[in-house]
Every structure is written in structure tokens, then in C-alpha cells.
Design goal:
globular, alpha/beta, binds adenosine-5'-diphosphate, binds magnesium ion
Length: about 950
């Protein structure tokens, strides 16, 4: 091939033939383009073509026109294609047709546009028909092209074409597209040409180069289309991840040339389970999008073995060559044209967590990837999917209908029939299942808010299935028993009619659909998951602990692989219904004696709580935080009390009125009075006794005392008020009770021979002096407990770092503290001077949208600010005490990016909620592996 002299005009090479493009340069060629080049170069059967770069796209978007000279370059490459294929673009004997395909560096399935069969016009169509001796095929290709080109390049809405299609089908009594013969399709093409003319005011362009030029521009523009922009925003695809779309121009091959032709999509392994068998679907005598669009329900690839054994053999060969080249599970598109297999696209497969974990372990076993790769290729946050609910295993109900198991997990919710309703009701906090015949990319906003997706058409690789899998949401597709009438907003399954708002349950693991809500259970760990996480633990330096407040939580956290409890919040124990009254007594106490009496009752309760947790975590450290929240959180609100008191006053007035009732009645209606005199006397007697007991007076009085206390505890800014260690300083007896309970629980466990490692942690410390005072209590009580129980109790004393000042004083804090635990929630609030609730409810979304902040700092640690403070505190603390143990608790402990940072600054452990422990374990290993790079 002659190298085109691109440089003269543009100074930049904007076009690469598949034979020459760099398969690794996805930023330039897009994922699709790069892989087409790479597949061509490793000798796979790819129809010839070339890729116009993303740089050309950016230049186009900037100037709103194709870069100068680009069309000349395209013409030269088309000439080369003509030579390679022996066909003639727009020619009337052996016409060359091409597809114009979008594709950026990041895969954005269905977000941008592709035009097929470009180059068709009256004369090339005649050529195609003569050449193939298949008029039906020719007209079918033509009408598809007019519609696609009309829609994508000229902006004529699908519905105008669909309406004509419906008309022609009705006219000839055709049920499926396939029932239309050549003459019908010819008529349809004519109708379509008219649709275009009517809506654009111009005839359909017949010059193939004009078609090509318009299409390339349209594909470039689709990069900035609303769908694509929304998608990038949702998935946080930034410019340095993907900037602009490339356009690949690819010789058409035809899957709709008869029964020895077809089209399909495949996965080199099962993307739902990870099993190492080729997986996918195909349709005989169909083209391009037919499989994905769910127009007909396709057949599983396994059936191809019977139907076209030779093609099946080639597919298996393709599977092996793709995997051994890419060292990754591939998702590929193929077309069979008269018995020849072509590969039209490949990319790394999107799989659910289960499949990712299984393939990691198995591909390592097969020698396809290294252990390092096995760990790095699984996105940690995905593992949470593995903990998605499943239908309760003892549930025996009969299902309403069965579709295809398209994305695992079970979900219940109210039926909604369109994406907008799903979005509205979902945002309003309702659980909804999006139910549609098929979904399209423009439904994406509905997916975000739905618990699950159910479609009546389309296969396991339909849009609905692919998108749901990516999001980890349950999906049942191709459930053909359901007849949806979205105008009437109802669906029929056999005899049953379902209306919008009715609750159903779908199980994306089996494809079953049930009426009503079905109980679900949490998923269990697979063997592969255990293996992978064991590898991760070996690799990681950072340890993973859990936040847990009860023995049950602790046990579960241990099952998730936590190597300790990094945070036990004692206030959670105070809040349970049997304890709250005692806690309130403690708060309401007027004297120290009264308070002590309440504390004496709390002591054994706390002690047994701690004992339970220590035992569940035998052999591992358990960090208990002393009481943290402001006292008023344990009391009812003033408003609530005022209401109750008002009710009681009303009750007292009503009793007064009842007492007067006999006299009033006697006066008004003596006869009636006589009739009821007996009963009335009894009633009044009862009221007297009630009054003498002063019951309501007592209650009113008590409530008024509480109200007074609540008012006295009221703070302008409770989160910055009398809480944490400040409470411990004002009421040393409260902290002393807790310290005693912890140490006694430890002593009791030690006596039973249970190895335990308790740690006492003080919240909200700002000054060294605060810490020293509490340390004094711990040391004193520690001695007493050891003496009374006659046993050594090992205990560590430490502080939370969640106040900015404490971080600044870390060097000195470390003299008293044997460990630090960053409370990154409060520390983030304090560093930003944001209150979390106000920030999240009022302005944070806007900050993120306008780019003032990249992430929500309460979810992803703000490395530049909060992180800097942490780094400094770590260094200062370790200077004082080299073996200082440092951890973090708070939301960030389960966030992979934050975990990476914690690893970098030398923190010893992260502590997060139980179900995020597996996520954190993998993230910790990745942090270590990436550091080495
Ligand atoms: P998407 O990114 O939406 O998958 P593609 O560019 O891959 O878009 O094309 C859409 C459909 O058309 C796919 O099924 C693809 O296999 C098919 N297709 C694209 N180019 C060709 C071609 N040259 N010949 C036959 N089918 C094609
Ligand atoms: Mg594709
Ligand atoms: Mg805190």
C-alpha cells in the first residue's frame, strides 16, 4: 500500500490503516480502532479498514469542521481499501460498502453511533443485488442504511421509520421483519427515502463520499451528544482517560446473506460465572445490531456447534487466540458471511465480581496471567457485589415467569414501565424495578435508580443485560411470557395482570420473576474469593480491621477476614431499649450519688458487652472508643417533650370536664340523667381515685424535669460542643465506669484463658492535657482491676485523631498514646469546616458538578488537605514513639483510593464496616503492588 502523503496538508497523521495503527494506543485510535489494528496485525480475520484518530475528532469539535485535508486522506485510504478488497466504492458491479464506527479510549457501550452499509445508493444497490443474486438481501441492507444514516447523520427520529415499517408489515400481514420479502422491502426503502426527504427537505445523498463525510462528522459529534456526556459524568470518565472518539471505517461483511450467514457476540469465558467456556449468542441471517438490540431472541453459541460445526470450531480457535494474545477475557463481535468467520471487535470483557474473581484464580492456574495481575485486575469495590442478596434458599414459591439470567442478585421493587418514572420514584426513595420490552442507551438514568431490570425481549448480551452487569444490578432479560403494554401501564403474564406500582421480585441468577416481595439472604464467599483474598493478605502490608459494635457484628467481620476491631462505638450499646432508661437516669441525675447509682447498673451490662466482643475476636485486637456523642442524643427532643406535656394537660382538663358531667346532665336532661345515674356515679368514683393518685401530675412533673434538662443541654453546635473527651473530663465517673467495664471484661476473659488484646481509645481529643487526664484514670483503674482479679491485663491506651489541633500536637500526644486512630469523618469536617449533613444536602453536589471539588471528601479521602495533615501527624507521632500503631476508622477505611494513600504514608491498618473488609483487603494488596511499580 502507498503511504498517503498526509503530512503535507495537516502536519499530523490523522488516519491509520488497520495494518499500521498501534494497537496499544487507545487514546489515539480508541479502544475499538486500536484492537481492530492489533487483531489485523496478529493475523485474525478482520475485514480491512482504517481508523481516523481522536485527534481529528478534537480538531473537528473545536473548528466545527473536518480538519483541512482530512477528506483527501480518507479518499486515499478508500482507494487503498478498494485495491485490497477488489471492490469499488459506490460502484455498480462489485460495490464496496463500509461501516463507520465510533470508539473512544474507554468503552462506553452503546453511547455513540455506528452507521452500517455506507456506500449504498441506487446504482451500488443494483450491483449488490446482481452480484449476490439476492434482491431481498440488497433491499434489506438498503432500508437499514437509510434508517441508520437518517437517524445518526441527518437526525431523523427512529419513530418515523418505525411507523412506516409498521405500516408495511400490516399491509402484508407480516409478523416479523423476516416475513417481508424483497418487494416489500423495496417498497419500505422507498418509504424511508421519503421520510428522509420530508424531514430534511433534501433527497437522500447518493454520492458515497458525501455519505462518508457526513457520517464521519456525525460520529465525531456524537462524542458531545447528551447520552455520551451523561455517561462520562456518571462513570467519572475524565479527559485524560478518554478524549474524543475515533472513527473506524471498516469493510462491510454480511451476516444477512442467507442461512449460511449470521452475526453474534461472544465472551471467551462466561461473564456471569467466570466459567472457562465460550459464551455468547448468535442469530442466523441477521446483521450487526440485531443481537444486541433484542429484535429477535438469539440462540446460545453452544447451538452453533450443531448448526455450523466448522464455524464453531473456528470460534473456539478465535477464543484461544484472543485470550493467549490479550491475557484477558475478551468480549468480541463476529459475523459469518457465507461460511466465513470475521471478527469485528474485541475488548476486555466486563464481568461481574464473581466472574472476575473466578477468572483471576483460574487464569493464574492456567499460566495465562501472573498472580500480581490476578490481584490487580479485580476492581476492589466490585467485591461488594459478591455480597449482593440472593433469594432465601428455603423459599419455595412458584415463579410467575422465567426469562434469561442476565445479571445475578435478587431484588424486589415496584414495577415502573419507563426510565423517567424509575428515576423519579427511585429518587423519592422508592424501590423500583424497571420493566421494559427492551432498553436503550437513553434509558440509562432509569437504571441508576432501579433495584433491578426486567425486559421481555433481548438476550444475555442485550443492552439491559450488559449495563446491569456493569452496575452490579440484578437483571432478567428476554422474559417473553410477559406482554408489556406501556401505554396502559400494565403487563400480562398468562392470566395475571401486573400494574405499575405492583411489587415483583426478580432473580438475575436464575431468570425467575416472582409476584410480591420475596425474602433474600446475603451471599456467601466462594472458594475462589477465599483464594484470591488469601493472596491479597500475603501481598499487603496494610492490615484490615472492622468497625463493629456487637459480638454478632464482630463475628461477621471476622468471617469477612478482619484481623481485629478498629472501632467499637460504646454509644450504640447505650441506645438499645433496655439500657436507654438507665442511661437517661444517669444523665438526669441531680447529684453525683444518683449518677453513680445509674452507672453502677450500667457497669455489668457494658462489661458483658465487651466480654462478648473480646471473645468473638479472641487473639485479635479490639479498640473500644469511650463515649463520644453529646448527651442530648440519648434524650427525647424538646419539641417531642413539649407535645407530650401538652397532651397530659389536655388529659387533666378532660378528666375535670368528665367529673362535671353528672351535674351538667342533671340540669339539662333529668330523665336521661336518671337513666344513667348508676354508671355515672361509678365513673365519677373512678375519676376520684385516679385524681387522688396524682398519676398524671407525676408524669407531667417528670417530663417537665426532663424538658428542663434537655433545654439545659441544648447546644448551638452540638457536634462541636460538649461531647467526646470533653464529657469525660466533666463527668469522670462516666468514663471511669467504661474503663472499668473494659478492663474487667478483659480480666474475666483472661481468667477463662481467652487471649485478648483490648485497646482503650479516647475520642475528640484536642489537647495533650485532656489525654493525660484520661490516661491517669486508665492507669489507676488498671491497677485496681489487676489487684482485685489477681491477673495481668494487657491493655493499650490511645487516642483518636479527629481534631485538627490534635494532629498538630501528634508528636506530644504520642508520649501518652500508644496508638493513633484517625477519625477521618470528623477530621474531614474539621479540616474543611464543613458539617457533613449540610454539605451533602446543600452544596456538595454543586461543588462536584462545577469541579470545585473532584470527589465527595466524605467518601474519598481528601489527600491534598486532610491527607497532608495525617501524613504530618504520622511522622511527628513516630518520631516520638517509633512503634506507634496507627490506623484509620471512618468511611474512608473502605475506600480503595483512600486505602492506597494510607498505605503510602505508612499507616498500619484501616478499619471499615464488615462487608467492606474484603474490598479493603484487596485494595491493600493493590496499594502494595502499585507502589512497586
Ligand atoms: P458498538 O460500539 O455499538 O458495538 P459497532 O461499531 O461495534 O458499534 O457496530 C455496531 C454493530 O455493527 C456491531 O454488531 C458490529 O459487529 C456491526 N458491524 C460494525 N461494522 C461492521 C462491518 N464492517 N461489517 C459487519 N458488521 C459490522
Ligand atoms: Mg461493537
Ligand atoms: Mg468522631
Amino acid at each position: 500500500m502507498n503511504k498517503p502523503n498526509f503530512a503535507i496538508v495537516t502536519g499530523k497523521q490523522y488516519i491509520f490503516a488497520f495494518e499500521e495503527g498501534d494497537g496499544k494506543n487507545k487514546m489515539l485510535l480508541g479502544g475499538k480502532g486500536a484492537n481492530l489494528c492489533e487483531m489485523t496485525q496478529i493475523g485474525l480475520n478482520v475485514p480491512p479498514g482504517f481508523t481516523v484518530t481522536t485527534e481529528a475528532c478534537l480538531a473537528y469539535l473545536e473548528k466545527k469542521q473536518l480538519p483541512a485535508g482530512l477528506m483527501d486522506d480518507i479518499r486515499r485510504h478508500m482507494a487503498a481499501l478498494e485495491k485490497k478488497t477488489g471492490k469499488d466504492f459506490g460502484g455498480s458491479t462489485n460495490p464496496l460498502l463500509v461501516s463507520v464506527r465510533s470508539g473512544s479510549a474507554m468503552s462506553m457501550p452503546g453511547m455513540m453511533d455506528t452507521i452500517l452499509n455506507l456506500g449504498l445508493n441506487e446504482s451500488s444497490l443494483a450491483g449488490l443485488i446482481k452480484q449476490t443474486a439476492n434482491p431481498r438481501f440488497g433491499w434489506d441492507a438498503y432500508r437499514r442504511f437509510i434508517q441508520l444514516f437518517g437517524k445518526i447523520a441527518l437526525g431523523v427520529a427512529d419513530e418515523h421509520f418505525d411507523e412506516r415499517m409498521g405500516f408495511v408489515k400490516r399491509k402484508y400481514g407480516a409478523r416479523l421483519d423476516l416475513d417481508l420479502d424483497a418487494e416489500h422491502l423495496k417498497e419500505l426503502a422507498g418509504e424511508f427515502l421519503n421520510v428522509v426527504k420530508r424531514h430534511t427537505g433534501k433527497p437522500f445523498p447518493q454520492d458515497p463520499y458525501e455519505q462518508l463525510e457526513i457520517s464521519v462528522g456525525a460520529v465525531f459529534r456524537s462524542w458531545m451528544g447528551k447520552r455520551a456526556v451523561d455517561y462520562r459524568k456518571q462513570f467519572k470518565i475524565t479527559k485524560d482517560m478518554a478524549d474524543g472518539t475515533a472513527v473506524s471505517v471498516c469493510t462491510m461483511v454480511f451476516g444477512n446473506m442467507g442461512d449460511d450467514s449470521g452475526t453474534g457476540v461472544g465472551f471467551t469465558r462466561n461473564p456471569g460465572t467466570g466459567e472457562n467456556v465460550i459464551y455468547g449468542e448468535y442469530l442466523v441471517n441477521a446483521q450487526g445490531e440485531d443481537v444486541v438490540a433484542g429484535i429477535r431472541t438469539p440462540k446460545p453459541i453452544a447451538e452453533l456447534e450443531r448448526e455450523m460445526p466448522e464455524i464453531h470450531r473456528q470460534l473456539i480457535e478465535l477464543q484461544n487466540r484472543l485470550e493467549s494474545h490479550y491475557h484477558e477475557v475478551q468480549d468480541f463481535e463476529f459475523t459469518i458471511e457465507r461460511g466465513t468467520l470475521y471478527c469485528l471487535q474485541t475488548r476486555n470483557a466486563k464481568m461481574n465480581a464473581r466472574a472476575m474473581v473466578r477468572t483471576s484464580v483460574e487464569m493464574f492456574g492456567e499460566g495465562l496471567i501472573s498472580k500480581e495481575r490476578a490481584l490487580l485486575r479485580v476492581e476492589p469495590a466490585m467485591l461488594e457485589q459478591l455480597l449482593v442478596p440472593q433469594l432465601s434458599p428455603d423459599f419455595r414459591g412458584k415463579c410467575l415467569a422465567q426469562g434469561l439470567p442476565a445479571s445475578p442478585g435478587a431484588a424486589s421493587g415496584k414495577i415502573v414501565f419507563d426510565a423517567n418514572t424509575a428515576e423519579a420514584r427511585g429518587m423519592a426513595g422508592e424501590k423500583v424495578i424497571l420493566v421494559r420490552e427492551e432498553t436503550k442507551p437513553e434509558d440509562i438514568h432509569g437504571f441508576f435508580q432501579a433495584q433491578g431490570i426486567l425486559t421481555s425481549r433481548g438476550g444475555k448480551t442485550s443492552h439491559a443485560a450488559v449495563v446491569a452487569r456493569g452496575m452490579g444490578k440484578p437483571c432478567v432479560s428476554g422474559c417473553e411470557q410477559i406482554a408489556i403494554d406501556d401505554k396502559a401501564r400494565s403487563a400480562m403474564i398468562g392470566e395475571t395482570t401486573l400494574h405499575e406500582g405492583d411489587v415483583i421480585t426478580i432473580d438475575g441468577g436464575t431468570g425467575h420473576v416472582y409476584a410480591g416481595e420475596v425474602p433474600t439472604v446475603e451471599a456467601a464467599f466462594s472458594g475462589e474469593m477465599v483464594t484470591l483474598l488469601a493472596w491479597a493478605d500475603k501481598e499487603a502490608r496494610l492490615q484490615v480491621m472492622a468497625n463493629a459494635d456487637t459480638p454478632e457484628d464482630a463475628t461477621r467481620a471476622r468471617e469477612f477476614g478482619a484481623v481485629g476491631i478498629g472501632l467499637v462505638r460504646t454509644e450504640r450499646m447505650f441506645n438499645s431499649t433496655d439500657r436507654l432508661p438507665i442511661v437517661q437516669e444517669m444523665i438526669l441525675a441531680e447529684t453525683q450519688e444518683e449518677r453513680q447509682a445509674a452507672l453502677d447498673r450500667l457497669l455489668p451490662i457494658q462489661r458483658s458487652d465487651f466480654k462478648g466482643i473480646f471473645k468473638a475476636m479472641r487473639g485479635l485486637p479490639v479498640t473500644v472508643r469511650l463515649l463520644d456523642p453529646p448527651m442530648h442524643e440519648f434524650l427525647p427532643t424538646a419539641a417531642q417533650l413539649e407535645l407530650e406535656i401538652a397532651h397530659l394537660h389536655q388529659l387533666r382538663d378532660s378528666i375535670g370536664a368528665l367529673k362535671d358531667l353528672p351535674d351538667t346532665l342533671k340540669l339539662l336532661n333529668p330523665k336521661l340523667y336518671q337513666q344513667y345515674a348508676d354508671g355515672l356515679r361509678k365513673l365519677v368514683g373512678g375519676l376520684h381515685t385516679f385524681e387522688e393518685s396524682h398519676l398524671e401530675e407525676d408524669v407531667i412533673h417528670r417530663k417537665e424535669t426532663v424538658l428542663k434538662k434537655v433545654r439545659s443541654l441544648e447546644e448551638v453546635n452540638p457536634m462541636l460542643g460538649h461531647r467526646g473527651v470533653r464529657l469525660g473530663i466533666s463527668y469522670p465517673e462516666i468514663y471511669s465506669m467504661q474503663i472499668q467495664a473494659i478492663l474487667e471484661a478483659a480480666a474475666l476473659c483472661a481468667k477463662e484463658g481467652v487471649k485478648i488484646h483490648p485497646e482503650i481509645m479516647v475520642p475528640q481529643v484536642a489537647t495533650v492535657e485532656e489525654l493525660k487526664r484520661i490516661h491517669g484514670h486508665v492507669q489507676r483503674i488498671h491497677k485496681v482491676v489487676e489487684l482485685t482479679h489477681g491477673i495481668n491485663v494487657n491493655v493499650k491506651f490511645g487516642t483518636m485523631l479527629e481534631v485538627v489541633r490534635a494532629c498538630l500536637r501528634a508528636g506530644r500526644m504520642a508520649q501518652d498514646a500508644e496508638f493513633f486512630s484517625f477519625g477521618t469523618n470528623d477530621l474531614t469536617q474539621a479540616t474543611f469546616s464543613f458539617s457533613r449533613e449540610d454539605a451533602e444536602n446543600k452544596f456538595l453536589a454543586a461543588y462536584n458538578e462545577t469541579g470545585i471539588l473532584q470527589d465527595n471528601p466524605f467518601e474519598v479521602l481528601d489527600i491534598k488537605g486532610v491527607g497532608q495533615l495525617m501524613k504530618m501527624a504520622v511522622e511527628d507521632g513516630r518520631r516520638t514513639r517509633p512503634d506507634l500503631k496507627i490506623g484509620i476508622c471512618g468511611e474512608h477505611g473502605g475506600d480503595p483510593v483512600s486505602i492506597g494513600f494510607c498505605h503510602q504514608i505508612g499507616i498500619d491498618y484501616v478499619s471499615c464496616s464488615g462487608p467492606r473488609v474484603p474490598v479493603a483487603r484487596l485494595a491493600a494488596a493493590q496499594a502494595k503492588l502499585l507502589e512497586a511499580k
